[in-house]
Structure formats: C-alpha cells, structure tokens
C-alpha cells in the first residue's frame, strides 16, 4: 500500500469515527426521550438514569390522548401549520416571481426594503401595536400575517425564478397566456423543488410557533401545541390528572408529549426529501 493510499485510508477511518460520534451525540437524547415515554410513573420517579425501562407501558400516551386540552392544542397546531404554510408559500412565491422581473417598476426599491428587513426589525412593541390596531389579538391571523414572508426565503426563491429561461415565458405570452396563468401552469411546475423546500421550512416554523402565540393569543383554548408543552414542562401540576385512571402528571407524560410533537415531521420529511435535496442549492446559483 502506497503512502497516499495509507493516508487516504487513515483519513476515511478518522472521518467515519467522527461521524459515528456525532451520530451517537444526536441519537442519545432522542432515544432517551422515546424510551422513557414508555415508562411507568413509579419507575420514572424512583429509578435513576436509564435508557431501557423495566416495565413498558403506554399509560403516558393514553393519558395525553384522553386529555381534551392536549388534543385541542394539537388540533390548533395542525390548523396553524396548514393555513399558515399555505399563506407563506403563496405570498412568498408571488412576491419573489414579481421581484425577479427586470421590467417591474420600483423593483430596486422593493428589493432594498426586503434586504432592509433582514438587517433591522420593527421590534416587538411596534409589531404588537400594529396587530392590536388591526384588531387581530386572539386571532390566528396575528400569527399568519406577522410571519407571512421570510426575507431570506424570498431572496432565494427570487434568485431561482431569475434562472428560469425567459424564452419559456415569451413563448407562453405569444400564445396568449396571461401572467397569472403563466405563473400557475409553467413557473410553478418548474419550481416544485424550491417550493417543496420552503414548504418544509415554513411548516417547521409554524409548527414550532411559540413566542408569537404567547404574545398575541390571550385565549388559552387557541394555544398551539408548543405553548401547551411549555405549560407541561414548567408546571408540576396543571390540573390535568385523569380521574378515571388515576394517572397523574409525570415525567413520562412530558416525554410522550415531546414525541407526539416530533412525529408528524418524521413522517413528512421522507416525502419531501428528494425535493429538499435539490432545492437547497437551486436558488443560490444567481444572486
């Protein structure tokens, strides 16, 4: 074996070892949360640290799924994620497509304003006053509209639209295709990779919405899942004991709630993975 092959073998071995260590560091807390969510209350409270429970039980999951407040917050999170992501993608793609056209009047000013918002934000108090002025307090539109367009996502999508051959659009216009129809029938099908990528980004953002929900939603019945999890994690007793089963609020219930909040995207990501891998680089070719 030559010296270069030995160096290459040593390098590959080192990289594999590093990746194994990184994988263990990432997987350890995940395995701990999942396994302890199947533990009994007595084992969680009396036994020390462990990864594999002695007595496997689904009491924690049964407790949560039978709890009306938890199920309500779960449904709220689904509603916020679905409608919010739809609004995000529609507004971001439409604005990005418009800003990608050199013939658009005021294009430079609009692009500057988009870049400006990436550097300077309006602040929490001014934003709250705007939301309150438009009577959006305790409305989900306070969540949808305040985070409707992410400037970074807009810029990347605009760059992608700029890379689409102009000849395609000119041919469509010659055939009598209007701008909106051109966008729906030609641009959108060609942009599925970038749209799917930012659909995933926006979905995670909406699913994990927390601060804005606390800020704008005073009605606890409208709280999304992440706010409900916060209540579970910081309070020892929030009056949610299931009287019929006698199952008290326990660390196992906390772990089960975290698992339930994570599972939806574990199922969604594999379906978007091929688009996600393509879309990460598509918008970075042309600035």
Automatic annotation (TrEMBL):
Domain called ABC transmembrane type-1: residue spans: 74-268
Pfam hit, one: BPD_transp_1
Transmembrane stretches, start-end: 12-34, 74-97, 109-129, 141-161, 182-202, 252-272
Superkingdom of this protein's organism: Bacteria
Gene Ontology biological-process entries: transmembrane transport
Annotated protein name in UniProt: ABC transporter permease
Annotated source species: Paenibacillus pectinilyticus
Main location: membrane
GO CC terms: plasma membrane
């Amino acid at each position: 074996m030559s010296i270069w092959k030995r160096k290459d073998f040593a390098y590959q071995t080192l990289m594999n070892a590093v990746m194994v260590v990184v994988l263990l560091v990432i997987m350890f807390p995940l395995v701990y949360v999942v396994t302890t969510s199947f533990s009994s209350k007595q084992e969680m409270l009396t036994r020390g640290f462990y990864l594999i429970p002695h007595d496997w039980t689904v009491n924690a999951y049964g407790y949560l799924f039978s709890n009306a407040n938890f199920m309500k917050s779960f449904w709220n999170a689904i509603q916020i994620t679905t409608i919010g992501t739809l609004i995000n993608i529609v507004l971001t793609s439409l604005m990005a497509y418009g800003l990608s056209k050199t013939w658009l009047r005021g294009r430079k000013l609009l692009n500057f304003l988009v870049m400006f918002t990436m550097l300077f934000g309006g602040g929490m108090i001014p934003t709250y006053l705007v939301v309150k002025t438009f009577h959006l307090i305790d409305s989900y539109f306070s969540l949808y509209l305040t985070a409707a367009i992410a400037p970074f996502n807009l810029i990347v999508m605009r760059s992608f639209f700029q890379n689409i051959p102009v000849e395609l659009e000119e041919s469509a216009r010659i055939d009598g295709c209007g701008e909106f129809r051109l966008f729906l029938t030609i641009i959108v099908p060609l942009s599925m990779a970038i749209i799917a990528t930012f659909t995933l980004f926006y979905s995670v953002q909406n699913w994990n919405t927390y601060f804005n929900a606390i800020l704008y939603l005073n009605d606890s019945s409208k709280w999304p899942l992440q706010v409900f999890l916060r209540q579970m994690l910081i309070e020892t007793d929030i009056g949610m004991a299931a009287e019929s089963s006698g199952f008290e609020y326990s660390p196992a219930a906390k772990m089960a709630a975290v698992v339930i909040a994570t599972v939806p995207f574990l199922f969604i990501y594999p379906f978007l993975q091929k688009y996600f891998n393509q879309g990460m680089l598509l918008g970075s070719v042309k600035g």
